[in-house]
Design brief:
With about 220 residues, this protein is of the alpha+beta class. The chain contains twelve helices and four strands. Bound molecules: zinc ion (ZN).
Length: about 220
Amino acid sequence: MKAYRLSPDEIYHLKKIERYGGTYSFQRWPEIYWGNPPKELQFSDVPINSYDTDMLGGYHSGKNAEGHIELYQERITACADEIAIDLGLDFETTYADLCYIVLMHEMGHWFTHWCHKDAFQHRRNGYLLQPTEVKETLAQLTVMWSFSRLSNAKVKRRKKIFFHLAEQQSQPYQHVLKFESFYTKRGTVLRRFNDLLDEKDWGIEYLLDGRKHSDIVKDNNL
Ligand SMILES: [Zn+2]
């Protein structure tokens, strides 16, 4: 596979998420490649939503193995073409922005799967047991966190593309839209996410309100 070469701008924004959270750390960034979608995604019986971020790239990992990141160039090209038409943007810029968004999303999967400082074996395993919408919400939020409160023209354009994409995506990717008040509260979300990794079954609502939802259901049944 051909290596994906980071732009100075992507490196600048990666630095914004380098210290992902107090309980996350790493020695080296993950490997990144131009890849192709796995066969099960190419020949699936289930209709594919070509706007879903993980149809445009992937974080590929094993149960006890660090994953690598792939960006699927053909799919990103086709999707960027549609977005450019939808939003009246030029293709080249939209393509670069979409590569950026897919890259940061997959970085989010890598951080939340692999980079735990505390109880790392337990939490890496806990990540695999989380519902899809929890994993996707953390990855989607990572894109927002990479903007780091900046609001220059480039960031505004990327946010516009990100939200346009999210609105067309499948349900697990859309939960991020409920997290508007958390785009600047990385610490809170990550603390709650770590709780989910340790306890596993309070669901996505716990990320939003910090309430243990399986306990609430049990209380109502008393
Ligand atoms: Zn994802």
